[in-house]
């Protein structure tokens, strides 16, 4: 498993690092791009959020295509196409072109994240998944911690050299995606049976373990694609992920502007480079918290409360940040929110593969991610609209907190039964993650209690 992790995870992290930076770098360029293209706060929020409309429309078909064509080819296609579009954004002459390109960026990127989650579920047994997803998703806080200052520096360099800072930054961020897409075609391996970089014995062991897990899940649940897409647990998890994504992208798009507002609130003047460096602090802490929390989740074989608790803490904390007196207390509160959001995500994505396999897992994971990521559209748009309406960031942050608390409440309502989230000693297969009152889930939990 260490060899599989070393082979796959660093490359997938690099791919997602560039992906996250390319979808959120609009936030660090907010001031200059709004001035150049004459965007109001509402219009900027719409430009940030329209990405997710294209993303949602294509997400499920994209993941089904990945299942059919193979991760190597499909992830390569995704990376090359989104890189080209990001470069094109650097040449956007007006707001209308920006909106069209942001929509197309969502279409191009659709399928990357759920595709990787599904891909990892084909390589790592259930006991490893939360920590592996956490390692992969370390790319997100690292992209925010390292990529945000990098994007700010590129804007600064572009302004000095060409008088077009945000355009230069977009072009520089798009090119690496194209390069990684080409590398992906030759580097990734679609399935364990093709892993010639493992020894014959290692390959056989991994194939047998993954097959045993898949057979057990199939026998116990037997979700077809159609049944999975209409399953109450799948839709309930989408509601939970909506709240997580709402908090994630509210931070991504508006944290730089909140920090820039320290000048008005506290008389603290900051350059765009300083804003980028300060923005990195919460994400650096989130990276550590996410990895430690996910290892604890795998060690205890419990994932439901490992989602609900950090999301609840983050939701209760985020509106408080705007009422604190001083930049340091504000940043401490924001850091708590960031840790809460990111700590929940790996455990969340360990849940679907506990009752889904094959094409049903591919489609359902994409559906959860696409519907959940409507929060990525709603967060910047609603937050921007509330800023225009009230003239303050506070109403928007209260909305973020309320949505996250609702998400945590739904997650707790879906809590595992006493035996439902724990794997019996020696079992290769997962147990039902949630209790929704459906006949199949109740029967599965009853069988688990008898087995225990």
From TrEMBL:
Residues 421-452 are annotated as: Disordered. It is a multi-pass membrane protein. It is found in: Cell membrane. Its main location: membrane. Residues 8-419 form the Major facilitator superfamily (MFS) profile domain. GO terms for molecular function: transmembrane transporter activity. The chain crosses the membrane at residues 5-21, 41-62, 74-93, 99-120, 132-155, 167-188, 234-259, 271-292, 304-324, 330-351, 358-383, 395-414. Residues 439-452 have a biased composition (Basic and acidic residues). GO terms for cellular component: plasma membrane. Keywords: Membrane, Transmembrane, Transmembrane helix, Transport. It comes from the Bacteria. InterPro entries: MFS, MFS_dom, MFS_trans_sf. It holds the Pfam family MFS_1. PANTHER family: PERMEASE-RELATED, TRANSPORTER, PUTATIVE (AFU_ORTHOLOGUE AFUA_6G08340)-RELATED. Component of the tartrate utilization system and may allow entry of tartrate and tartrate dehydrogenase. This is Putative tartrate transporter. It comes from Mycolicibacterium pulveris.
């Amino acid at each position: 498993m260490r060899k599989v992790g070393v082979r796959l995870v660093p490359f997938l992290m690099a791919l997602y690092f560039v992906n996250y930076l390319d979808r959120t770098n609009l936030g660090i360029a907010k001031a200059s791009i709004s001035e150049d293209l004459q965007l109001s706060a509402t219009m900027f929020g719409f430009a940030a959020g329209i990405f997710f409309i294209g993303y949602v429309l294509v997400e499920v078909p994209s993941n089904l295509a990945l299942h059919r064509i193979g991760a190597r080819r499909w992830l390569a296609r995704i990376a090359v196409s989104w890189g080209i579009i990001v470069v094109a954004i650097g040449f956007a002459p007006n707001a209308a072109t920006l909106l069209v390109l942001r929509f197309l960026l969502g279409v191009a990127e659709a399928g990357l994240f759920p595709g990787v989650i599904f891909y990892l579920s084909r390589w790592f047994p259930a006991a490893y998944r939360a920590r592996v997803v956490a390692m992969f998703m370390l790319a997100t806080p690292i992209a925010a911690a390292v990529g945000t200052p990098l994007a700010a520096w590129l804007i600064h360099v572009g302004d000095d050299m060409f008088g077009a800072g945000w355009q230069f930054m977009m072009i520089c961020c798009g090119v690496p995606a194209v390069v990684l897409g080409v590398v992906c075609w030759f580097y990734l391996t679609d399935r364990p049976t093709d892993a010639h970089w493992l020894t014959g014995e290692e390959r056989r062991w991994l194939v047998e373990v993954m097959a045993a897990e898949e057979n057990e899940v199939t026998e116990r649940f037997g979700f077809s694609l159609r049944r999975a897409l209409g399953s109450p647990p799948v839709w309930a998890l989408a509601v939970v992920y909506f709240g997580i994504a709402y908090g994630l992208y509210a931070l991504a798009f508006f944290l730089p502007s909140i920090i820039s507002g320290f000048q008005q609130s506290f008389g603290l003047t900051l350059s765009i480079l300083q804003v980028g460096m300060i923005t990195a602090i919460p994400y650096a802490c989130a990276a550590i918290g996410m990895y430690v929390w996910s290892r604890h989740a795998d060690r205890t074989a419990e994932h439901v409360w490992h989602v609900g608790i950090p999301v609840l803490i983050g939701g209760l904390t985020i509106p408080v940040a705007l009422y604190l007196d001083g930049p340091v207390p504000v940043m401490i509160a924001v850091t708590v929110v960031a840790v809460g959001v990111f700590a929940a995500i790996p455990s969340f994505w360990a849940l679907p593969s506990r009752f889904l396999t094959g094409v049903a897992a591919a489609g359902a994971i994409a559906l959860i991610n696409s519907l959940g990521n409507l929060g990525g559209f709603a967060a910047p748009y609603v937050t921007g609209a509330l800023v225009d309406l009230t003239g303050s960031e506070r109403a928007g942050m209260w909305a973020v907190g309320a949505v996250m608390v609702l998400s945590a409440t739904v997650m707790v309502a879906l809590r595992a039964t006493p035996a439902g989230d724990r794997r019996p000693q020696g079992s290769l297969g997962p147990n039902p993650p949630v209790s929704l009152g459906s006949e199949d889930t109740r029967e599965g939990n009853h069988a688990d209690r008898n087995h225990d």
